Amino acid sequence: MRFSGLRVLREGLSGNKGWQAQWRDAEPGDAYDVVIIGGGGHGLSTAYYLAREHGITNVAVLEKGYLGGGNVGRNTTIVRANYFLPGNSEFYSHSLKLWEGLEADLNYNVMHSQRGQIGLFHSDAQRDAAIRRGNAIRNQGDDAELLDVPQLKKILPYLDYEQARFPIHGGILQRRAGTARHDAVAWGYARGASDRGVDLIQNCEVTGIDIEGGRVTGVQTSRGAIRAKKVAVIVAGRSSQVAAMAGMRLPIESHVLQAFVTEGLKPVVDHVVSFGMGHFYISQSDKGGLVFGGDLDMYASYAARGNLPLVEHVMEAGMALMPMIGKAKVLRSWGGIMDMTPDGSPIIDHSGIGGLYLNCGWCYGGFKAVPGSGFSMAHLVATDRHHGPAARFRLDRFRTGRGLMDEEGTGSQHSLH
């Protein structure tokens, strides 16, 4: 069915009895042209763009749990394109453009809100770095504005501007940035892929990858063997474990990133705000909850839950930036398993095994990358050529040292990205 305001009104007046299932809950077939391992945002968007852009519909998406049950539903929902380095910059620019047309494309309300994102700075050196970043963003073709303290006070009056330790000197604003509803993004792509003939197979865990003569031939699953001409591994924090089934050792560490949401409050935080002296970021959801997060837990783990020292660290950063947050009650927290690369930038590439492709290493950038990642991955799988905006996301940069993208300037330690 197609969604419209008239349809919503009609269903509301008739007891909402006419809604249909959003996608087919398919049974596994014997063989497919493409098998995608991972039913999160990146896997579902890849399936959608394979069907829409390349006409490849004999595709199965295999998810060991339920669709959207991983990182796509465990993040702070921020969408932006304010990356600094070539490689990342053009990719996230492409992804933001896809975000801006996504709801019309999918005919699905993903609640994309371009409320603007403001990154604060707290010293002269940080101001210089923000100006340099802003110029790079504008040269890429995206928007960035430098704001002084009087301008900030008009739109962010609740911040603590005069504190001695972290005085606020200004900020850099990207008006086209914002948030989206993470669950709805997964549902919209699932619906679009299913409508085009893709099989979405839930509760189907991949237990092995079949390789003959240096080429992938299929996968073993908890629901039987499935033959495939091509296999795409798109499993976020589980990338190293699944790649190991093909005999690969990836340059990935998995770390937990916690996020938090408060009780519902009246509208107060109209933008996405990022603290420049601590890894803290906050926005307000449509239900009124303050949604915020900070640094990841620094030890490697596959547990989708966090630890208390990082909870304290995030709360301290929030209180330093906006003391008024101390009056809000935290309702819940959750953790996502982050696939961290040594240079803080992702991988979209061939694996070196015929017909096996990798999409991983998104660090903090996974949710905002969902449309661009799926588009570029679908191009790679369909054509065996790298899509232009993702052309630098090569796996071999970690072997040769050429093309490394140290976006955060923190060196080769995974957890610092």
Describe the 3D structure.
One of its GO terms (cellular component) is cytoplasm. It comes from Roseovarius pacificus. GO terms for molecular function: nucleotide binding; sarcosine oxidase activity. The protein is an alpha/beta fold and about 425 residues long. It folds into two domains: about 200 residues, FAD/NAD(P)-binding domain (3-Layer(bba) Sandwich), CATH 3.50.50; about 150 residues, D-Amino Acid Oxidase, subunit A, domain 2 (D-Amino Acid Oxidase, Chain A, domain 2, 2-Layer Sandwich), CATH 3.30.9.10. Helices cover about 30% and strands about 25% of the residues. The chain has eleven helices and 18 strands. Strands 1, 2, 8, 9, 10, 11, 17 and 18 form an eight-stranded mixed sheet that branches. Helix 2 runs parallel beside helix 7, helix 2 crosses helix 10 and helix 3 crosses helix 10. The longest helix is centred in the first third of the chain and has 17 residues. The chain is globular. About 50% of the residues are buried.
